[in-house]
Amino acid sequence: MSSLKFTAESSSNGMVERDFTVGDVPGVLWSPASGATDRTPLVLMGHGGGNHKKHPAMSGRARLLVAGCGFHVAVVDAPGHGDRPRTAHDEAEIAELFRARAAGEPEGPIVVRYNDHLAERAVPEYLALLDALQELPEIGTEGPVGYWGINMGTAIGIPLVAVEPRITAAVFGQHWPDVLAEKAKRITIPIEFDLQWDDEHISREEGLALFDAFASKEKSLHVNSGKHKELPRFEADSAVRFFARHLGGAATTAA
Amino acid sequence: MSSLKFTAESSSNGMVERDFTVGDVPGVLWSPASGATDRTPLVLMGHGGGNHKKHPAMSGRARLLVAGCGFHVAVVDAPGHGDRPRTAHDEAEIAELFRARAAGEPEGPIVVRYNDHLAERAVPEYLALLDALQELPEIGTEGPVGYWGINMGTAIGIPLVAVEPRITAAVFGQHWPDVLAEKAKRITIPIEFDLQWDDEHISREEGLALFDAFASKEKSLHVNSGKHKELPRFEADSAVRFFARHLGGAATTAA
């Protein structure tokens, strides 16, 4: 088991940011500057395809959870993303995606296949990450754990949550059901799921089929008008309230 | 044009409740006890079938909007509901609904037909209500106006909003698309729409078809697991945040 090594630390506006590695996987842990209390909830996040652990979508969501709820938030670079090297397979798949995009062909089949490959590499990394984070004295094993990832973050998160009982609430969204629906059927924790009604890549039927697959007794679907990249910012606030309801803590995020 | 006559007044926990009549239609107006300011938003609500203007769902939503946002909220008894007399037609339709329910037959065809009849009577009443409310000096014509009604409140609200340009944001949900979808196509204001994924009366396809019909550029669908009467209470908080976003005012509702 790899332990977590901190490599850098900074803080701003009440949030401490610590870069770390677990084995050769680089990540970032955001925590309240005021210090965490016992049983402080932890949210693991997964970034979107082509992005990285400190993309503004990640740091922005982290700020809502840390400043608004007093939670810890951790995210690692996915395989082939951010500060991590690309394999020849990564390069080939990315080239194929760009070729299809330029040719106006559907991206779905390539993204589904490549994300499945990335998830097979990333799930063991997230399991090791959670082990290592829970060894930190300021986190420990008592606090509840959530997962939040959209797009590629869902492709990694669904197989992760399907095998990891420590995660007890999750926010997913915007992915094709191929590969993932069978794994979603094994998930019973509360879920919030986002999809875009006018998504140019994922059809309504595909998005609804993935939401439908979760075995969760409590699940919510948030559909918004707009294209794939137009997920409204207020859905991040909604996700934070979802985690506050299920993991505890007071969401003080303004409307 | 009928003017509004107040018939009773009480207050509790920072909210003033005033009963009124407009013509022969009884209603209730809830307002902040601290007094309204210029351009204070107003939300008109429509209650559910078989309920009335002061059902806990109405007074509870009003408290969120008045105490949380400082808005005015008004609701009237629908025709044949609450303090209003039933016509022979009302009695016959209600008897038919109860018969179908006891026989295990689908309620949809009866509810769709009867709600359409009620909406034809109620829409002019809501238009007169809004005229009369805007004649009150503490409301006036400058503040933005919203509409919030689920179930029968949607059956009345969609034809109302389709013809009333003063209403600029609306929360609807849980109704069949028959009759209403054609009217929804004329609605372009921001919409939040609730449906239940396991509704025993309204199929998923029917619920989605009504959401899809709105011509609104900004529209959000909130689907939750559970049966017809199990709409989660946090959807009321979400609706309040929706009105705060679109009509102004600070939603201070806790998560």
UniProtKB/TrEMBL annotation, chains A, B:
GO terms for molecular function: hydrolase activity. This is Alpha/beta hydrolase. It comes from Streptomyces gilvosporeus. Keywords: Hydrolase. InterPro entries: AB_hydrolase_fold (IPR029058). The keyword Hydrolase applies. The keyword Hydrolase applies. It comes from the Bacteria.
